Amino acid sequence: MSTDTITTAARRLLTANDLRSPCLPVRDLIGPVDVTAAYAVQQLLTQDRIERGGVVVGRKIGLTNRIVQQQLGVDRPDFGVLFADMDYSGRAIPCTALLQPKVEAEIAFVLGEDLDGELTIDAVRRAIASSHAAIEVVDSRVAQWDISYADTVADNASAGVYVLGDRLPSGVDSSSVRMSMSVNGEPASSGYGTDCLGGPLNAVLWLAETARDLGEPLRAGHVILSGALGPMVPVRPGDHVEARIVLGEETIGTAIVDFEPDPR
Fold first, then answer.
1. For the segment 221-236, what is each residue's pLDDT rounded down to a tens digit?
2. CA–CA distance, 11 with 106 (Å, rounded to integer)
3. What's the predicted TM-score (pTM) here?
């Protein structure tokens, strides 16, 4: 894949973001499944954001849930980069922040140690300083979410913004929880910890190994969004979203986000 092609694909996505107008997919340039090319495009987007003052605070894992994979027509996880200005914890999200938002409920982790070297589930577990109920608001710069695997990878894994909710009790087995999410008080999505690659820690291990092998290991302080526990749901201005993480019959954590009404 030529450098010019990678640059052209990145420019298409950057222009869509800057103009706040979704664009055509980039698979006509990089193909629908070329992972190397797709992450090369993502890296250019990351560099551009850093040059504009963006501060990296973690990573997101996408496409860990088979239902979400089916929704997007893909069959494997991906990852993207989280920036400080994506964090809307405790704040309403303005209409202007996103193009085509959809919400996912998941478990987020904050690392207390670096994750590099030899990696195991136990190493991941030891590195986690805290876990939280979370809502990820995914977004796409590609019009009508018409994406292949390469399109979403190139587009920073369709990252939008996120909200960290309640801290979950220490020692909770995240694979044993279930999730329910409502929009405006109506049930909208549900799932289980096992729906995320068999358990959220498995997703973090996959990410840690992938990031290490790319020479950019996960670091202490990073926020890790581990992936959806149920289907993603479209949202509109004025919507109120609430996600609950449940263990047995007890709600052990809640994440809430409001979308500002359209001022027009």
1. 999 999 999 999 999 9
2. 31
3. 0.95
